[in-house]
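ok here's Cof-type HAD-IIB family hydrolase, seq below lol
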Amino acid sequence: MIINNHLKKRCCEMFRIVFIDIDGTLLNSKEELNENLLKTIQELQQKGVLVALATGRSLDGSIIHGKQFNCSIYVTYNGGYSILNNHIIHDAKIPAELAYFLCRTTHDLNGTFIHFSDRRSLSNRPGMKTEYLLPFAESSTIIDTNRDAHRLALYLDSKHRNELQTQISEAASFDEGDRLEVFPAGSKWTGILPVIKKLGISPEEVVTIGNGTNDIEMLMEAGLGIAMGNSPDCVKQAADWVTEDNDHDGAALALQKAFSLQKEPLVQSRI
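and the structure came out like this:
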């Protein structure tokens, strides 16, 4: 079921591009892109709609899924690094001084840091092989982190995460439960804007789908913002629609409704 939060008129003919978050949105809880969503994306592409990914992941961590539908538009590092047809459209980084301070502090507190820059990552304790951390980290010293970063993943206990987050003012940060994620100042929407400007697409012609607090701005600013059923309440409240969760075809159902693809009434709206 899709719930309409905000009573805005939406016409499928006006939408030209979709930006989809990866973790918790494109992927189900088994970290798979299911066949129904893949077919829906491909049908959209056949209709001339552009389908892009907007994520906190690196480009390497995004391409492994985007290649399944020949994606050529990536907004990565939470809007810090945007790629259109293999060309860099937007590139913002966490200042070297701040990156170094956060990595050094994490190390001194016996935590683990991962410092991402472009398509490389460095860590004081490399070895984690989780897909969203691609490219996997190389062993690093603290001095190596005195450089601009696209992303920092700081693994600390909750007390130290909270303390460290209060000291971050020049970047965006999110507490992910086991780590503090730090990105360049801005949001996914910051990375989307230069892409759509380059394509000659207006914000009203954009659909966004996400499930995290870092998706809130892109859900609010797009012509149609859709929150997944597995989103926190604050994310659902920011969206125009709320769809099913990522284990019940939420993204596919939302796209089918937004672009009138369904042959039968797969989705019921509640207004």
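fwiw The domain at 96-184 is CATH 3.30.1240.10 (Hypothetical Protein, Haloacid Dehalogenase-like Hydrolase; Chain: A; domain 2). kinda neat tbh
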